[in-house]
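Why does this matter for the project? Reviewers at the last site visit asked to see concrete outputs rather than summary tables. In response, this paragraph embeds two records directly. Each consists of the residue sequence and, immediately after it, the corresponding structure tokens. Nothing has been edited or filtered.
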Amino acid sequence: MTATATSTSTLRALLHGLPGVDKVGVEARAAALGTRSVKTTAKAKAIDLAIRMVDLTTLEGADTPGKVRALSAKAIRPDPADPSCPSVAAVCVYPAMVPTAAAVLAGSGVHLASVATAFPSGQAPLDVKLADTRDAVAAGADEIDMVISRGAFLAGDYAKVFDEIVAVKEASGTAHLKVILETGELGTYDNVRRASWLAMLAGADFIKTSTGKVPVAATLPVTLIMLEAVRDFRAEHGRQVGVKPAGGIRTTKDAIKYLVLINETVGDDWLDPDWFRFGASSLLNDLLMQRTKLTTGHYAGPDYFTLD
């Protein structure tokens, strides 16, 4: 199947022909993997890897240029007192804030992601979504986080969702496209699997769980289903796609659970910021606190790292 085969009947046959998700089994496996512990040297490496995987995010109506500049500087140098601390993967902001972030991030190696396509609802005409995307790329974004039309997906209009992703991918140019499924609104694990495959067939470079703007965001079972989807998609189509859980991941303990999930489900190929990201804001501070504890033997004070 290619990005030109867009009839709803063709897509329905393919997506509804995918194996059903064993709800009990996937939740039990995710829970079991979530109990694994990582100690000492392995934990230090896991923390640094998790820092390198963070998309440091601010998506608030009250965002200011000053806040975005500070966040971008922190992305480059998360712990000013420790030059051995790695930079994060990317900064993620609204399109209007892309020029501000781009000025700080230039030459740093930290990617600049922008949400687009009428984030977070996706409720806008396609021409508006495409203009949103093109403007963000023109301003300096090298990654676009788009939202799918969940209403169209749930109504079974798979061709509309597919065609929109294809169009946004084209409008993104050389920027990587992360497709947000908003899994908390999809209703079933089977729909998460179908939406994952639909996004990948349409050309997504990453599939992302959530906007972080609905009550149910990233979960281990949902991420497990998405990891299985990218694994199976690569086996069938020969193309690797990344995964980004976002929303509700706040602690080092949480992050390590996801790293274990990757290792046990898809292996080393995805244990890299090019293929796995955390969409988060508060997670970075906890990772930095735990890193300081491992390095110095004590926790930094609560106001040692900036609040984002």
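We now turn to the second protein, recorded in exactly the same manner.
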Amino acid sequence: MSNIDQARYAALIRRYFAACNAADHAGLVSCFTPDAVHYFPSGLPEIPWCTAQTIADKWVWCVENLGSQWTIEKILVSHDSHEAVIEWTHWKSIPGTALRGDEWYVFDEQSGLIKEIRAYYASPADKGVAINELVNFDYRARGYHLEPATEIKR
């Protein structure tokens, strides 16, 4: 991994957000591998969004129907893996609301395009579920902890 890759990934994320804000369907599709997946916390219909076409369709819909615009607050690109993390704000002018959150990006090593985004919202936890997590994200297969690492002794 080089500084060139880091700069390329940061530039791709900025291009992706510019395409979101412009409701540029072709520009959005060009940022992703064809089989890309965008994961979200629960609460949205039809998630996760699978394929570059679907991701582009959904963001264009948000701009047209919610008055959506996004700002990037921070970008951190890994120095030793094909991943990045950002903080963002999603401004929704029609309902007059905003949502803040983070996203974890995974890039395809061959093409340099985005192959996965995992979105996390800065919002209260859902007290109705035992574990707050992304819908349909395979935590077990990815090696995530499924229980606390050590038992707390009382």
